[in-house]
Amino acid sequence: MSDLSAVERVDSAVYTVPTDAPEADGTAAWDSTTLVLVTVRCGEVSGLGYTYAPAAAARTVDDLLAPAVTGLSALDVPRANEAMRRAVRNAGLPGIAAEAVSAVDIALWDAKARLLGLPLVDLLGAARDEVPVYGSGGFTTYDAERQDRQLRGWVAEEGIPRVKIKIGESWGSRETRDLARVARARASIGDAAELYVDANGGYGVKQAVRVAAGLDGEGVTWFEEPVSSDHLDALAAVRGRVTADVTAGEYGYTLPYFRHMLAAGAVDCLQADVTRCGGITVWLRVAALALGHGLEISGHCAPAAHAHAAASVPNLRHLEWFHDHVRIERLLFDGAPSPQGGALVPGRDGSPGLGLRLDAERALPYRVG
Fold it and tell me: Does the pLDDT at position 240 exceed 70?
């Protein structure tokens, strides 16, 4: 098995997919999303991984990471992950390099599971059968009709009993509209569904506390990044003064980042993104770190990349069913998951690895590198 499992080559490709409408959150706007795909080849077996990152991540894979893992066994993913971390020391791990490491790490786990003929969740070992998801979108650029249609689609048509919208519009300068959109969101989904909001760091501390008082009236239970997660003392200050759960962590690129966040008492639920934090290898360590602090973890975006790992941890709260990434994963990949009753069941069909296969013909029009 050792010879058959050796990594023979690592390839990258870049795809950019336009959004289906202009999108923005509290602190950024965009009209397309780029996915960097990594393929790890071990004899006749290939593993697939990806990250949502600039095309520069593909150059990092080609120049720094492929040489670091070629020749290693795909069965020894932690060894390869450490080799990649060392390879980007001078390039700087946080940011694009960590996203590149994440994509290769995911591809290695996919390859390992395929070599063994197992769904990845069976290789990792399941802690649960189902992975709850929450619908995520509600961009600040949406008008009332589009927001209503999206939210009702998740709750009434897809049976997802929890949804999230973006607030903090224009760096927190449209507070009245933020609260009006939250009220409309509650009217759209009814009283039974959970309602979450994400300010993407758009507010100041006292403003976030004032806004939270208005959110309470609509039953909002999840207040994501009310202030920038760069300022852990500020995040902790908000957490201590509001009733909704304060959450953050999507910009974590290294394990120490999450340790600092937990040590600061900054969050009620820790978020981590498998396509940013160092891949499945590190995401599982982040989940263990949260468990050691008595907290749950929530997977940020990229649902098809997270699902199997999410099913393997006992302290999972849920996984983000993010509008953009759901579109892209369904477009580019055969085997992309779909929720039933508000949850994914990874590995249910017995497909090995992540269960994803690139549809090269569908993907070709979007390839940019």
Answer: yes
